[in-house]
Specification:
The chain is of the alpha/beta class. It is 39% helix and 22% strand. Bound molecules: adenosine-5'-diphosphate. Adenosine-5'-diphosphate binds next to helix 1 and strand 4.
């Protein structure tokens, strides 16, 4: 059976931390859907289209990766696509509580879909979309 995972997030914008999770996830899954899961009542810095374009640019043409967006719940989306796994990345302790809650709620919604976590790479421990936006807005370099 094909192993398919959905990697949901805001990706506003995509960072090297996200990319690291995507690359490592592709070692375990045959296909990955990178899903911009957005709240229609909240606007980010970049539009959904801009975020999708940036992801496409950094991923390139990889037939294993699909980029999509959805305003709804993750679990019905994953179910509809035939995915068995929701992939998430874990950084510092601050991610844990929220991710734990989400994983428990999602499991309650459908026990057949598991949330799988990959620990951040040490280089990306402090990398977040918010920090990058903050640095860039003050003219700081966000190059590597
Ligand atoms: P959200 O808005 O749901 O927090 P993000 O776009 O910030 O979504 O991130 C999506 C997923 O990627 C989350 O599981 C988040 O913990 C993970 N992630 C974000 N940045 C990093 C990073 N630097 N290293 C590892 N995982 C990360």
């Amino acid at each position: 059976m094909e192993k398919l995972a959905v990697y949901p997030g805001s990706f506003d914008p995509i960072t090297n931390g996200h990319l690291d999770i995507i690359r490592r996830g592709l070692r375990f899954f045959d296909r990955l859907i990178i899903l911009i899961a957005y709240n229609p009542n909240k606007s980010g810095l970049f539009t959904i289209e801009e975020r999708m374009d940036m992801i496409r640019t950094v991923i390139g043409a990889d037939p294993r990766v699909t980029i999509d967006s959805s305003p709804g719940l993750m679990v019905p989306y994953a179910k509809e696509k035939g995915a068995q796994v929701i992939l998430r990345g874990l950084r510092a302790l601050s991610d844990f509580e929220y991710e734990f809650q989400m994983a428990l709620i999602n499991r309650r919604l459908d026990r057949d879909i598991e949330t799988v976590f990959l620990m951040t790479g040490y280089k990306w421990f402090y990398t977040s979309s918010n920090l990058i936006k903050e640095a860039a807005s003050h003219g700081g370099s966000v190059d590597l």
